[in-house]
């Protein structure tokens, strides 16, 4: 006599399929980018973009240069007037085929243009140093080991940082007297603070989540001689159930179950 499988049996079978699928996905060769994007397990990592704005560049020289770093390792270079981001290391080569790589271009260009537009209001009134004045800005998003991602900015002139901005709480910190004028101009300008929050807590955060899918293993093996034991921590809200379906779907598709 045929017996229909009850709910418990079907649930047990589904659990077994899921377990096999997850093991298959994590053990299979090839780039981990094929498993999932924007859902990644990570240790504490930082993604940083350094902007240098030249108010009066020499003929043929770029007015804005961007350098991207992950955990202090340079992986990209970009001129704000260009159309392509240049990979500068194996880390960049690993992720340059991702859609995220191309989406950086417009955002980095927008940030450069925004900073350039702010120059007339923030250049020190009594600039007596020899040579042209350059503006530096550093955008950082940092993933803690507990999965929390924070964002921040630093600003300075000619390589000397003088002002910090915490994108989470909107707090400004002056590190040098030159930063006082910038703080006075920006702290009450909603458009400025909203822009800095948006790109650091939105765009930069998303890039970090995407890239770490590919970078986690590379950074773990290229670090100290005794690499840290990987912490299985989601760079995603810990109570979120939305991180699992894409990964499950990808794994089941790889197994040709669907």
Automatic annotation (TrEMBL):
* Protein's cellular compartments: Membrane
* Keyword Disulfide bond among record annotations: yes
The chain positions of domain MHC class I-like antigen recognition-like read: 44-212
Signal sequence, start to end: 1-27
Q: Keywords for this entry?
A: Disulfide bond, Glycoprotein, Membrane, Signal
Name the SUPFAM superfamilies on file: MHC antigen-recognition domain (SSF54452)
InterPro entries membership: MHC_class-I_related, MHC_I-like_Ag-recog, MHC_I-like_Ag-recog_sf, MHC_I/II-like_Ag-recog
A GO CC term attached to the entry: extracellular space
Q: Which Gene3D superfamilies match?
A: MHC class I-like antigen recognition-like (3.30.500.10)
Q: Name one Pfam family in it.
A: MHC_I
A GO biological-process term? antigen processing and presentation of endogenous peptide antigen via MHC class Ib
Write the protein's name: MHC class I-like antigen recognition-like domain-containing protein
> Organism source for this protein?
Bos mutus grunniens (Wild yak)
């Amino acid at each position: 006599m045929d017996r229909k499988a009850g709910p418990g049996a079907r649930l047990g079978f589904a659990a077994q399929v899921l377990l096999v699928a997850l093991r298959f996905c994590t053990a299979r060769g090839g780039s981990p980018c094929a498993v999932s994007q924007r859902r990644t397990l990570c240790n504490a990592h930082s993604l940083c973009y350094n902007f240098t704005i030249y108010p009066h560049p020499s003929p043929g020289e770029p007015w804005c240069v961007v350098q991207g770093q992950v955990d202090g390792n340079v992986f990209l270079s970009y001129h704000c007037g260009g159309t392509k981001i240049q990979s500068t290391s194996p880390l960049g080569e690993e992720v340059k085929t991702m859609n995220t790589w191309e989406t950086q271009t417009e955002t980095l260009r927008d940030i450069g243009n925004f900073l350039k537009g702010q120059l007339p209001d923030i250049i020190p009134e009594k600039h007596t140093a020899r040579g042209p004045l350059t503006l530096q800005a550093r955008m950082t998003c940092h993933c803690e080991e507990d999965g929390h991602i924070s964002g921040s900015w630093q600003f300075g002139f000619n390589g000397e940082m003088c002002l910090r901005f915490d994108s989470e709480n909107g707090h400004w910190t002056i590190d040098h007297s030159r930063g006082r004028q910038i703080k006075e101009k920006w702290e009450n300008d909603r458009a400025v603070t909203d822009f800095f929050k948006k790109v650091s807590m939105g765009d930069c955060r998303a890039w970090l989540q995407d890239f770490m899918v590919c970078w986690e293993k590379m950074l773990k093996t290229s670090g100290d001689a005794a690499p840290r034991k990987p912490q299985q921590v989601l760079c995603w809200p810990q109570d979120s159930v939305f991180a699992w379906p894409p990964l499950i779907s990808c794994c089941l598709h790889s197994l040709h179950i669907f």
